Every structure is written in C-alpha cells, then in structure tokens.
Amino acid sequence: MSGWISIHRKIKDHWLWEDKPFSRGQAWIDILMMVNHEDRKILLGKELIEVKRGSRVTSIRQLCDRWGWSNTKVKSFLELLSKDNMLVIKSDTKKTTLTVLNYNDYQISKDIENDKETSGKHQENDTETSPKHTNNNDNNYNNDNNDNKKDIYILSKDEESFLNILSEIENYPLDRKKDLEMYHTLEERYPTLNLLEAIDQWRIYKLDQPLKVKSNPRSQINTAFKKYVEWGKCLKGVNSDGEYNKPNNRNIQEDERIKPDYSHIGFKGTGKIDESDVF
Fold this sequence. Notes:
Layout: H1 24-34, E1 40-44, E2 47-51, E3 55-58, H2 60-67, H3 71-83, E4 87-91, E5 96-100, H4 110-129, H5 136-149, H6 157-167, H7 176-189, H8 195-205, H9 217-231
Antiparallel strand pairs: 1-2, 3-5, 4-5
C-alpha cells in the first residue's frame, strides 16, 4: 500500500493515545511528532545548543514516562531504530539527542503542495464554467459565512511555536486559548525575554522535573521567566538604537489580525490574564 496520511499532534490529547504501554509503532510515531519541525536553539545549563530540524533533545527517563516502558526497553528500542538506519542517538550525562534520518520523507513535500494548489485551481475553474444558480438564500448563506470569518484568529509563527512547545511537555494541560492569552501576557510582562527560547528552556528543565497532576504549570512558567530575566538568560538581542529586537517572523500584519474573544473561558474583559485564574 502506497501513499501517506497527515497526523495532527493533537492526537496526543486523545484518550486512546494515553493508553499505556505504547506499542513500538506508537512510540515511533511519537518520535516523529516530538522532533523539531524547524531549527531551534535551546539553553541547556550554561550551554547554548542548536537543535536541527528533525532532532529533539530529551532523556531516557522522559521516554520511559511517555511510553510506559522500562529503561531497558527504551534503550533497546532506540538501538533497534539506529540499526535500521531510522534514527541517530547521541547521549551524554546531561541529555539524549534523537535525530530522525530522512525526516523530510515524513513531511508534505513542495511537489505535493503544488499538486494540491493546482488541483484546487482546476476545481475553481470547473465551478466557474458550470451554470450559476443564485437566489436570496445563497446570498444569505454567503453573508453568514463572511460574518463567521470575523471570528477566525490566525496564529503568528511565534504563537504557534509557543503552543507546540507546550504540547510537548509531559502532563502539561494544554488549553490553546488560555495559553495564547498567557503568551501575550508574558510578552508584555517580560519584553526583554525571548519567549520561544525561554519556554523551550523550561521544557528541557521539565525532562528531569516532570509536572505532577496537581501542579500549576502556568504559575511555574511565570516564575521561571521572571528568574530568567534576573539571571540574564534567554534575552533578546539589542539593536543599534538600544531597542530589543523582536523575532521578525510574523505570518500576518498585526493590524490585520483579529483578537480572539476569551470571555467565555473565564478571563477578564481587559484582555489580560488575571493571576487568580492562571498564575
């Protein structure tokens, strides 16, 4: 059987995925979902490390917790993948780095994306050449759709990366709307901090200090970020004007983005996180 399917990382939130121990196939899919989809720098202790696309810094202990396996079984499985030229494993006293070989083979290629785009254009052309039957009901339907588009919120690249890192943290209770609000509050509260580098640093720390069921992770994140600023860690660079550089990778202009409505999930109408609710 040929072909492929795309799997969203949210599958990790499904009750089926939480059933342990994992099978070998499930563990392999988990590796594919946990590795970086783009190059990223992380701070490990006092060392700044660049983790390439298709790689992930983790630990044997965390993999044991994720898969419900023993230490011996995890090591044996990783060695098996390495012998089959599926994975490269590099371990030292601080970390284990996994690198998926031929990582691009598991991603949507540009040729496939182009085929989709071409197919979509052909479908539009077919629609345009077919007889048009319009009435007031159709117009009302289109108007309703246009109104619904006003509620759509498009994530920036930074926001999406921040949420993806949170989703990779063991036992983190991901709530995309609440965590997006937390992102903006942290952005205002710690303007000198590189949020993506900081949250990835916190993720690394949690490899050996996993969250517990009764943990308050958002409060921990706020405390950690405050400490990072005090210690001078994960800070943004400064330009020639003495201003802090912000990552220039937004995928849409700020004035074109529509702010989401958080009122229905318990947040205050000010657009800021109330510490009693989150931190």
